[in-house]
Every structure is written in C-alpha cells, then in structure tokens.
C-alpha cells in the first residue's frame, strides 16, 4: 500500500496531521506528571477531599472552558486559538514548578488544564472542516489513537522519573520537560492554516436563522441540539459519573492495596493505552461502514465493567487485567464523538461541542465529590457506586438511541 493510500485511509490532511503532532507533544508533556497528582497531593499533606477537589476542578474546568474554547475557535480561528491555549497552559506549569504545594496545584489547574479543555472544540472543528462527513469517525479515531500515545509514554517516563528522583525532584523535572514540549507544540501549531470560510459545510442552516449574524447565544446553541444528541448527552453524563467516581483514587488503590510502585503504575497505564490504541482504527473503519451505535453501546459496557474488576484487583497481575478492561472502554469513543459531529449544525460545530461538554462536565463535576465521599466510606462503596451509574447510562443509551435504526 502506498503512502498516499495510507494517508487517505487514515483521513490525514495538512491540518489534521499538524494537529496530531501537537496532540502528541502537548499530551506527552502533560501526562508526565498529571496522572500522579493524587498521590503527589498526598505526599504534600493534602487529604482525601483535597484530592477529590482537584479531580472535581479537572472536570469542572473542562466543562466551563469548553464553550469559551468553542467561541474563540469560531471567532479567532483554529490556529490562533490553539496557540493561545498553549500559552495559558505553560503559565500554569511554571506556577506549579516554582511553588511546590497542593494549593499551587489547585490554583495552577485553572491555567495548565487550558490546553486539554479549551482545545477540545478546536480539535473537533479541525476534523470537521478538513474531512468529509463519511470520514469523521476515522478522523476522530486517528486523533483518539494519537492522544493515547502520550497517555502511554507520559506515565512510563514520569513513573521512572518519580522512582529515580523521588516525588519532589521527579515532579520538578517532569514539569520542566513538560514546558519544553509545550513550547515545541506551539511551533507546529504555527504552521496550521485556516479553512476557507466560504466552504459549503459552513453555510448557515435555516433553523438557526438570523442569530448567526449577531452571534448565537448559548441558549440558541443548546436549542439546536437534536433529540438524538440530547439522549446521547444524558447517557454520556451517567457513564462519566461511572468514570469520575473512582478516577482520582485508582492510583491510591493500585499503590496502597495493590502494592505497586510509581513505575509499575506507569506500566499499568501503558497496558490500558496499548489496548485502546489497538481498538481505534479497526473500530473507526467498521463504524463508518456499518453504523456507530453498536460500538458506542459496547464502550459503555466496558466503562461499567472497569470499577467492578477493581474490586478483586489486589496484585499487579489483577490490576493489569483491570487496566486492559479500562482500555477497552475506549472501544467506541471515536464513534461517540462522530455522533456528536454528525448531529451538530455545521456553522455551530465548535460551539456545539463546547456546549455539549459544558453541560456534561458541569454535571459530572459532582461525581468527584461523590467519589471522595464514597471512598471515605470504603473503596468498595466507591467502585460499586460507579458501576451502578455505568449500568444506568448503558441501559439509557440502549433504550433511547441504540434501538433506533437510523445512524
């Protein structure tokens, strides 16, 4: 198969290729240390509810930043917006580097989470404007796969640094490397070009009317949600409660109950990411060809199974199995994101993504506090509560979306 055919199969264009490099660099820098923060907070003297608060901030900021990120992308363009988001994140990394305190982590999160939160609508917009609609799932699948490379490499390198240099110096070195990689990311973003504003897929839809001329409000964007997108949002909220309730405490369970080191925890995350990466391309191809709903349903099942597997994971081997299940929960993520793309009005895509994630993640922020409370009761209560939310979300999606014939 020629390089051109491979590029065509993987839906690679100039902007999507540059975006993938940026995601690889910025994501690797972030994951060098971010996944270890709950344990790092513990070493700095923060308790369970400080850990829960930090996790809640990750979800909440991801929510409130998503819609402004979409508006900035629609008004400023993809390249300028991504450059700004990178600069804001670098400022947060510098703050945490020079002030080693759990309070610095809480305050700095308003800055260093900007890249992943603000840039999400922009990355979706790049895919939507660069590819034809029948290639969206593949575009999202390749992007999702590349995102998992940093999630694999970052914890491996970061875990080695923490084991080698200790928590204080290890985090400092990881942050310094993270800043350098973020600066390099901006170099690749600089060469992105803006899509033609007169493209046919950016024309105004009749149902939006004249609001596009004066700038649609958040309420207008939400009113443009189709019934299918609303039902997907409800099921997604329940599934994300399943994910968020145990999220910050998985590393504590692995290190305290499973007896693993920081480096071994990096191996566990690598198992998860390799599993996810093997799924993305074939599933994206099949979803574009045969329909997206069955793959979304399967991924929701794996979301539900992960906290259940943790109940029996008291050794590295059982934790490895649990993290493979966690990797399989990414099985249908490209299909789910492609459903959002397909249901969004073309001229409001970035803001639709932003509004969707604003509503979802603002609601799911409560899952972090619920998770902290359940953890204070017992780890088992935390995992069971998460599984119940996952089961409800899976049933909701099956009943209201999966049974419908149209994709």
List keywords for this structure.
0% strand; mainly alpha; 407 residues; Growth Hormone, Chain: A; 18 helices
What's the CATH H-level homologous superfamily? MFS general substrate transporter like domains
Strand portion, in percent?
under 5%
How many domains comprise the coordinates? 1
Terminal CA distance reads 31 Å
Mean pLDDT over the residues: 80
State the helical fraction: over 70%
CATH class: Mainly Alpha
Main beta sheet: strand number and arrangement?
Answer: none
Annotation field: number of helices: 18
- Could you say which structural class the secondary elements and strand pairing correspond to? mainly alpha
Low-confidence stretches: 197-213
| Shape call | globular
CATH architectural category: Up-down Bundle
Order of helices and strands: HHHHHHHHHHHHHHHHHH
Number of strands: 0
Gyration radius, in Å: 20 Å
Remind me, CATH topology?
Growth Hormone, Chain: A
């Amino acid at each position: 198969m020629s390089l051109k055919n491979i590029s065509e199969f993987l839906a690679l264009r100039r902007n999507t290729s540059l975006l993938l490099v940026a995601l690889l660099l910025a994501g690797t820098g972030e994951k060098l240390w971010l996944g270890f923060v709950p344990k790092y907070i513990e070493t700095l003297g923060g308790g369970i509810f400080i850990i829960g608060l930090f996790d809640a901030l990750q979800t909440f900021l991801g929510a409130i930043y998503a819609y402004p990120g979409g508006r900035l992308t629609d008004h400023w363009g993809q390249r300028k917006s991504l450059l700004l988001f990178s600069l804001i994140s670098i400022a947060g990394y510098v703050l945490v580097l020079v002030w080693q305190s759990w309070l610095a982590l809480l305050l700095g999160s308003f800055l260093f989470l900007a890249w992943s939160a603000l840039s999400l609508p922009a990355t979706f917009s790049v895919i939507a404007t660069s590819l034809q609609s029948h290639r969206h799932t593949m575009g999202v699948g390749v992007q999702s796969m590349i995102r998992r490379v940093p999630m694999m490499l970052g914890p491996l390198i970061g875990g080695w640094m923490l084991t080698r240099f200790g928590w204080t110096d290890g985090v400092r070195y990881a942050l310094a490397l993270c800043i350098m990689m973020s600066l390099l990311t901006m170099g690749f973003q600089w060469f992105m070009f803006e899509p033609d504003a007169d493209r046919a897929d950016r024309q105004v839809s009749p149902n939006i009317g004249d609001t596009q001329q004066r700038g649609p409000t958040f309420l207008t964007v939400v009113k443009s949600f189709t019934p299918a997108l609303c039902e997907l949002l409800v099921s997604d909220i329940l599934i994300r409660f399943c994910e968020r309730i145990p999220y910050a405490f998985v590393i504590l369970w692995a290190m305290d109950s499973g007896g693993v080191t920081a480096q071994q925890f990096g191996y566990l995350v690598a198992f998860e990411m390799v599993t996810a990466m093997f799924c993305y391309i074939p599933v994206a191809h099949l979803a574009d060809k045969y329909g997206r709903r069955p793959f979304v349903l399967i991924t929701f099942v794996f979301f539900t199974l992960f906290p259940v597997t943790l109940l029996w994971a008291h050794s590295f081997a059982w934790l490895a199995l649990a993290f493979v299940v966690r990797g399989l929960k990414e099985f249908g993520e490209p299909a789910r994101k492609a459903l959002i793309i397909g249901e969004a009005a073309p001229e409001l895509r970035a803001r639709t993504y932003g509004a969707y994630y604003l509503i979802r993640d603002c609601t799911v922020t409560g899952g972090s506090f619920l998770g902290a409370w359940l953890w204070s009761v017992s780890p088992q209560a935390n995992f069971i509560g998460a599984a119940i939310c996952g089961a409800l979300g899976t049933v909701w999606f099956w009943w209201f979306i999966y049974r419908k014939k149209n994709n």
